[in-house]
Structures are given as C-alpha cells and as structure tokens.
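Ops channel
N.P.: pipeline sanity check, posting one input/output pair.
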C-alpha cells in the first residue's frame, strides 16, 4: 500500500507586535512610587487618628499573626480570623470615638481586661470557625455525593428493567486493525 504524502511542517505563528500587559510573574509588583504613596498615607492616618490606630494595632494583632502563619496563597485564615477579630475591635473603637479620642483614652481601652477579652475572644472564635468549618463542608459534600450515587443507581436499575441486561454490559472492543 502506498502511504499518503507527509504533511508539510506547520509554520510558526508570527509574534504579535503588541506587547502583553500581563506581568511576567503571578504577583503584581509594587513600584517604588506606589510604595512611597502608601507609606505617606499610613503616616498621615497614623498622626490624624493616633488613638484609633493604637487601638486597631493592639486589637488586630491576632489577624496579623494569622496572616503571617497562613501559607495558603489566598490567606483564608487571615480573612476568617480578621473578620471576627474586627467585630471584636469595633465596639472598642466606638467607645473611643464617644470619648475624647486621644492617646491616653486609646491605651486605657486597649489594655482594659474586658475589652482585650472581647477583641481576642472574637479572634479565637474566628480561629475556631477556620478549623471547624472545612470538615463540616467536606462531610456535607460526601453525603450529597452518596445521595447522588444512590439516585443514579436507582435510575440505572429502572433503565435495565426497561431495556434489558444488555444495557448494563460494556461494549466489546472491535479489532479492526
């Protein structure tokens, strides 16, 4: 038998003259100008709201720890702990704003045992949610999958009753070499 003629090699696609706008790495790089802008904004906020910043820095320490020790790329622990931690810090911030929001009042609130317990207790609740929710979700997914398998097997039995046992048998391979 004669073989068909070989296909000519595919030509390489010419490169586009337009440069790609996506960065070469997956993380976006912060330019020095952007970094300086953020630093200036942070210092301005620090001086404008010194009392609030003290309270936030002391109260949100568990969130910082969660961010540092979380190795996942999306930082799920930091989000979970941070959200709950902020709910514990926010009443103290409101208490500070009701009074004179100076440094002395902020330190008084930040190191008051009850307020610290509320702030760090809410962060502990965030850690508890971070640890407890994934196994619950996994169990729910497993139960759902088992239920779906039972439904499909029931439907398979109905089809076999309707069409016969030949439906359940796998097709034989044909040797057409």
């Amino acid at each position: 038998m004669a073989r068909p003629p070989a296909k000519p090699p595919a030509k390489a696609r010419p490169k586009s003259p337009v440069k790609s706008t996506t960065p070469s790495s997956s993380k976006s790089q912060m330019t020095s100008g952007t970094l300086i802008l953020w630093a200036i904004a942070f210092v301005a906020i620090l001086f404008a709201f010194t009392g609030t910043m003290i309270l936030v820095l002391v109260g949100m320490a568990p969130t910082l720890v969660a961010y540092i020790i979380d190795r996942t790329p999306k930082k799920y622990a930091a989000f979970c702990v941070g959200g709950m931690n902020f709910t514990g810090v926010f009443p103290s911030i409101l208490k500070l704003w009701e009074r004179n929001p100076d440094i002395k009042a902020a330190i008084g609130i930040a190191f008051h045992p009850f307020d610290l317990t509320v702030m760090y207790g809410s962060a502990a609740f965030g850690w508890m949610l971070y640890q407890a929710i994934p196994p619950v979700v996994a169990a729910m997914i497993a139960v759902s999958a088992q239920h779906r398998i039972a439904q499909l097997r029931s439907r398979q039995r109905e089809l076999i009753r309707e069409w016969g046992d030949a439906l359940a048998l796998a097709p034989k391979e044909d040797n057409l070499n």
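N.P.: looks fine end to end. The radius of gyration is 31 Å.
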